[in-house]
Amino acid sequence: MNSAEVNRFSSPGPTAEEVCQQLERVFSSGEFHSTERGRRFLKFIVSETLAGRSEFLKAFTIANDVFGREVSFDAQNDPVVRIEAGRIRRDLERYYLVAGQTDPVAITVPKGGYVPHFEYTHHPEVPASPALSPDALKDVGSVNHERLFPRPDRSKLLIALILGTILVIAAGSLYIFPAPEPSASGEALSGTSPTEASGPKVVVEAFEEGRPVDTTFDIAHGLRDEVIGQLAKFDDIVVIADPSKADRAGTAGYALQGSIQLDGERLRAVARLMRQSDGAVIWANNYDADLRAQSKLAIQADVAEQIASAVAQPYGAIFRADTETIARQPQNGGWDAYACTLAYYSYRRSMNAQSHDTARDCLQRATQRFPKSATSWALLSLTYLDEMRFRYKLGTSSTVHPLELAASAAERAAALAPNNARVLQALMLVSFFRDDIEKALQTGAAAYAINPNDTEVAGEYGLRLAMSGKWESGCELVSSAINKNASPEGYYEVGMALCAIMRNDVQAAELWSRMSDLQYNPMHRLVLLSILGAEGKTTDAKQEQDWLNANAPELMNNIRREVSLRLQRPEDQDKFFSGLRALGIAIESTQTE
């Protein structure tokens, strides 16, 4: 049975009194490290929003009222407000990570503006949205709650860390399996035929209007157009904009449906993804917005980006559903390009030698059968590259030359589709590990510009920026990817641990590190070891060091080489090494070849 992930809301958000109490709670905490000017900034935008004046929260107003700038202030040439907003976002993120995980209200400042967002951190269960029929919800499994600007709820994990308890979470076990071969019978996923372009097809139906008023009509039609545009940025799926041309029995495997409801100035967009073959709702979500705080165009863009990301990103709703489907098919050796894509993402979730070999072999055969499949070449490049960057986990031989194989496959992909975001992602990573940092960042920027909603592109580009020394911009991208539920789970959290190390916040670094999947890659444990050394936690550090000596001794003999492959600047390497040296680990004596 497929389980659908349905997100619903309780109706009201926090009251003004609750928001003010939360702001005072944040200000009184020693873990909120904002400057006095930053506190004035946050207090001002919160107060103005609670007073119903959020539409006036522009850079000019804030610069005048908070920072005392003259009426001649030019936001284009003076970035003071934008910079302060970025600092406040980071300070709030740190506060909720370190001290505020059990607070009842979350205060955030979403990117793209200065209007704060308030939400309860724990939402009560509410009845199902009336827009979804009982029949459509028969396969619904888990229930989560998100707002227009969601923040991952990690409080249970953080509490467990504080208590010193190690939790093993197997929520993703349905998707962690050795990637299977697709059926040789030719039964294609999502109602498609087994060709190189056999990715899933999605028809975007007209969004319904809650009541016949011009505003609702305009927003519904505009939102649908935005969704189509955002989905079309994902090269792995085929978007059908005209439902009349989609054969519901087979041409499109999925239908994206939606509706718009207005209640005064409050807007609710409802979206759901239906599998055409059996009518099951495999994903649904509601998005709330305030027309007083944002324009219609801004709301349409925000909601469309989130829908597209949730539905079409790697590890998103479509890929999860199709991965389950292919897992139930006979494994008789018929190779389909899209099935190999699923095999790759299945491998990345499980990260073991068997699933890696299956994905690599599948992609090798797919590129032979479909030599013009740029995505297959790009993913094949990444599987080769992983034999180097994850070799201590996968146990790959050090005698092979995976980087050369990865470069050759990536170049083949680029010749076929130079504007494909996945292709550019592969080129970025190959260039990075070849120490061509300028080319890596240029390629990553191009990939991100093509599809900023692809969390894998955004997260990997953010990591490359950060590890190249551009920590502020890189860490912001990684943080944003995590907030959009980027996968594999735990992979990007170790990047946030590095971000915290570089700003000398070892407490936050340890929390991020323990939120990463320590079993995913021994390098994750090396990061934690450095952090524990910097904190002086020698007992905990000895446990990690003993594990690494027993399970990844070659890594412990090549620390300098492995760290320098990732952290490009000598000063960043030294900061990382200082934690290890505090434990008596002699970095200088480790191999460099």
Automatic annotation (TrEMBL):
The chain crosses the membrane at residues 157-177. Keywords: Membrane, Plasmid, Transmembrane, Transmembrane helix. Gene3D superfamilies: Tetratricopeptide repeat domain (1.25.40.10). This is TolB-like protein. It comes from Rhizobium sullae.
